[in-house]
């Protein structure tokens, strides 16, 4: 009896383990989680999805539909192959797709390519105003789908739906924009506020919503370059311009101001950018920035009798020559520093004489380029030391 009981116990354990492995396999295969309540669900990046039975009234009749509900923030991804979708294993059960939207929170903004392609029983879809893009083939080849409700003027690819699907767009004017009335604008300047009237429209569908008048346009408080000094790279340099009004609001390029950069700004020299007010602003401001030559380094330094010889790394592109600075003070204090110019970038070795016997000297080097009579220096190299004989 004990032996028979033991065999029954082993059989039960094996069957339980097999069932458990099957459930794990199916869960991973379908990208879903099965709970005790038989609710099928899963996650796609920052999004959550689940399948549920919903009661609804269709054509004045109450009916139960199997709905795929998706919520969260971000984008429903693109799929090259519908088989890669986590809900593909339950495709034939999906009768409705509902994209959840929570007021005041970030929601789903895009429905990716082939996200709901080839759903044979899909008949209803509800898309909230948060969705701004519906990609190619998103709902293609869904034979029972003939009507879609879209709550905003969304960017729908022309091949997102089958040709006979009716798209009912109901814009809720969530995306507001403003158009200034040109006749009423007094432009803001660098010193004075302006004023204007404007019309409010929905940037989703373009419908007129409201109007307002006598609104102040704060004057421009600051205009500056994010960076003024650059090092030669051989590529054209275009510094970013920051424009702020008196309320510290950052203005938008091409909408509030336009920029014009001087030519040739890939070489060593001084260049300008002209900032002109635009639309509701009237001002002009010219800003300057500098491109410096690439630096060098000391590759060898050797002591001589009351002298030392220094050799620098050759830097022949966009340079005229080199400068050597030396001092008996490690901080190159005022009055202790002396400089020597090497006028050709082909000459990389120089002997410095007339020094004090036995003294320790601190030495550094840089490149320079002369443009229209003005010298542009690179950064100084790392400091080296030498004790003369």
UniProtKB/TrEMBL annotation:
Stored InterPro entries: FN3_dom (IPR003961), FN3_sf (IPR036116), Ig-like_fold (IPR013783), LRR_5 (IPR026906), LRR_dom_sf (IPR032675)
Transmembrane regions: none
One Pfam short name: LRR_5
Domain called Fibronectin type-III: residue spans: 292-389
Name of the protein this chain belongs to: Leucine-rich repeat protein
Organism: Dorea hominis
């Amino acid at each position: 009896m004990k032996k028979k009981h033991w065999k029954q116990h082993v059989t039960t354990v094996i069957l339980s383990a097999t069932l458990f492995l099957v459930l794990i396999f199916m869960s991973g295969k379908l990208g879903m989680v099965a709970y005790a309540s038989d609710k099928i669900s899963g996650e796609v990046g920052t999004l959550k999805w689940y399948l549920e039975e919903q009661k609804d009234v269709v054509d004045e009749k109450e009916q139960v539909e199997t709905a795929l509900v998706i919520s969260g923030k971000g984008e429903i991804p693109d799929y090259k192959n519908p088989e890669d979708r986590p809900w593909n294993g339950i495709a034939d059960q999906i009768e409705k797709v509902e994209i959840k939207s929570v007021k005041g929170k970030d929601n789903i903004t895009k429905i990716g390519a082939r996200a709901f392609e080839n759903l044979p029983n899909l008949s209803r879809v509800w898309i909230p105003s948060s969705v701004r893009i519906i990609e190619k083939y998103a709902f293609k080849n869904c034979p029972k789908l003939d009507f879609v409700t879209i709550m905003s003027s969304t960017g729908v690819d022309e091949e997102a739906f089958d040709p006979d699907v009716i798209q009912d767009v109901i814009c809720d004017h969530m995306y507001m924009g403003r158009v200034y009335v040109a006749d009423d604008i007094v432009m803001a300047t660098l010193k004075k506020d302006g004023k204007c009237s404007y019309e409010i429209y929905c940037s989703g569908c373009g419908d007129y919503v409201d109007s307002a008048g006598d609104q102040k346009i704060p004057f421009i408080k600051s205009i500056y370059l994010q960076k003024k000094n650059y090092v030669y790279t051989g590529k054209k340099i275009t510094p970013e311009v920051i424009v702020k009004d008196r309320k510290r609001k950052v203005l938008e390029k091409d909408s509030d101001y336009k920029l014009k950069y001087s030519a040739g700004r890939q070489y060593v020299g001084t260049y300008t950018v002209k900032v002109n007010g635009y639309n509701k602003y009237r001002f002009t401001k010219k800003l300057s920035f500098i491109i410096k030559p690439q630096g060098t380094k000391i590759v060898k330094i050797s002591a001589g009798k009351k002298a030392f010889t220094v050799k620098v790394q050759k830097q022949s592109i966009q340079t005229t020559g080199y400068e050597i600075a030396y001092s008996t003070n490690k901080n190159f204090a005022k009055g202790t520093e002396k400089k020597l110019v090497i006028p050709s970038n082909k000459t990389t070795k120089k002997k410095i004489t007339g020094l004090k016997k036995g003294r320790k000297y601190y030495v550094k080097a840089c490149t320079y380029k002369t443009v229209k009579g003005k010298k542009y220096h690179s950064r100084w190299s790392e400091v080296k030391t030498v004790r003369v004989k």
